Amino acid sequence: MLRFAIRLAAVLALVSAAHAGDQGEPEQSCDGNTFQMVECLKAKTAQWDKRLNIAYQKAVQDAQPAQRDQLRVAQRLWVQYRDANCLYYGLGEGTIARLDAGECMRSMTEARAKEFEGLGHQ
Length: 122
What we know:
Order of helices and strands: HHHH
């Protein structure tokens, strides 16, 4: 039980710290019971997914013709990797696994969205 509480506190600290100062993301913190935290992470992931899709479409439009097909292939493979990677966390022990998987999806989607948003600004 103590191990669960420590892991839960660590996940919550990471979620709070990771969101500080991000533009376009709600100030909502993912507190509450496990169900509420999982639902909160799903909502945040959906918001990052929306940003990711917008940035991806812009990246496809801005890419050189020779790069477009490769970008599409890479994005499909990235989605497969993200889903498989986060499933690994979801198959862990106890209810913390649902939070670990949710945070995995949120953080990987956020990172990919920011990667695409940064294209052309380097």
